[in-house]
Amino acid sequence: xxxxxxxxxxxxxxxxxxxxxxxxxxxxxxxxxxxxxxxxxxxxxxxxxxxxxxxxxxxxxxxxxxxxxxxxxxxxxxxxxxxxxxxxxxxxxxxxxxxxxxxxxxxxxxxxxxxxxxxxxxxxxxxxxxxxxxxxxxxxxxxxxxxxxxxxxxxxxxxxxxxxxxxxxxxxxxxxxxxxxxxxxxxxxxxxxxxxxxxxxxxxxxxxxxxxxxxxxxxxxxxxxxxxxxxxxxxxxxxxxxxxxxxxxxxxxxxxxxxxxxxxxxxxxxxxxxxxxxxxxxxxxxxxxxxx
Length: 292
Fold this sequence. Notes:
The chain is α+β, with helices and mostly antiparallel strands. It has two domains: about 5-70, 2-Layer Sandwich (Alpha-Beta Plaits), CATH 3.30.70; about 85-290, Metallo-beta-lactamase, Chain A (4-Layer Sandwich). The N and C termini lie far apart (about 40 Å). The protein is globular, with a radius of gyration of 19 Å. It is about 20% helix and about 25% strand.
């Protein structure tokens, strides 16, 4: 929970506030954009919640915050935020919430599938938080864990121990050293089962890999996200740890695949038609080439 003594000066007076431990991960602004805003290196409350929905979404942000930087002056029923996760996004795809500081607040997702289809899939790792683990257990646990890259693995080992799930991650990002059950090799796409396709996308890291589910949902880690400012898909030049040139090539390879959703670990989610997504991706490639 946030420390009132460290409350940032820019917060709107009132109940909710953000303190100086904020790492500017963007989670609160995605969950409650009518309450939180960016001031350059942190988030603040610019509008105190004025409806039940705004309060609920603010409590979701409080629960999801990786550093516990959001606080309240008045007692609140935090169950409203806790019980919201995993949060349904579309069909059987959920956002886990409970982001981890070790992953800089990266978003983790859960695909619910019957055992006959291979069981539930977790994409990247959230915090191993008791309420979340209990909810996921009730939803059928986790059979597969897909880790896009080494930055966003958080509590993967604890989830693997709890659920006995198989972990998939690229060998070039240290999968063997981390005792992953299924290290992915090379740059060719690998089919994990009928509905899951792992596509290596080196660039952000040497072994970064995205996951395509049912030719519809693309879980992109730190490779690709939606830019609200540019209103198109984008990559992150300033945090390309391995090779911008390789990331451009990886982005070009994605043009051969159809998808309707981009679900990143960092950055904004976007949904559109496959045709529009391809057009956005082509713009992204051109934009990246101009920034070589």
